[in-house]
Please model this.
Amino acid sequence: MNTENNRPGKGIWLAPVLLALPFLAAMAFAAVRFGPTIVKLINAAVKAMVVV
Amino acid sequence: MKKVLCWLLALLLTGFLALFGASFAAARVVEPGMKEGGTAASDSVQQMELRLIREKIEELAPIYEFSADAALNCVTPELVAEMNQQTALWWNSILVNGETTDAPSFDTQNLVAALAEDYAGRGLSAENAELRATEAANAVGESILRIVLPLRLPLVGKGLTEASSRVDLGNVIRFLLGIRWAALALCALLAGLIALLESRNLRLCLPYIGSAMGASVLVIAAGCVLYALTGVDTLIAGASPSLSAQYGSLLNSAVIPLFVYAALLLAGCAACLILCRRPHEPKAD
Model:
């Protein structure tokens, strides 16, 4: 197999960003959609559990 | 078609590499507490607790009208270490068996004797001095417990009893700790599948594996940013300074390995992507 012809170009450096994009999008969606609820839950849990 | 399949496998590899990093960091937090006898808080945390206890005693002294020095003499670093060991055993029982043992307790005997002597020196009768010393020692003991383990123990116990009636908590925790090895095995499997698809030519696999490594660093970094945005540290610090110190110490034990893991992945990504772009030198026969 001629590997010389399969050498990736400079664009390969963008591949990690493109691969991470679906995960980053999912995380951003989850943060926007569920973030405030999660923060409220953590806040309530801390207030309920911790002796001030 | 082969390339599309390889990139899909690289996408999965990204997810499992990030999952391994996250579960590895979580295990670093939980595992020390599961050792036999548990792991007590670090020396710096214990010193902070001792400082907070001393401040609390100085605060209580004018309220209960005792000499702060008399109580401070009874609160030694050894006492704080013993209280932390009790707390470590309490956590150990939750993590290993999913149930609470006896809550940490403070033996007020020495403190009562010291305070009774102090009250007697202020002209109180022996009976009255004993009574007031017991009252003050209980308040000091409660404050010490609140600093070493600032949780509502009955609430935690009730929650654990409720949860234990539904699931075996000890097994669930052990299962969650095993996730990292499953994720690592899947990473190896996916890298192997990419190699098989690329006719076992390592050079052709490098772009996929290297990209997945780089992408997982980005995912881990995004996870860290999201965690910082939740402001859990600030919430805990606002609720209890001693719990914040204990939590910070636990978090530090996870952050450093996670940082090292991310640095290794980044180095692996750079190495793979540089190597795959190097001109191929045919072997001289």
Remarks:
- DSSP finds one helix and no strands in chain A.
- The radius of gyration of chain A is 22 Å.
- Chain A has one domain: 12-49.
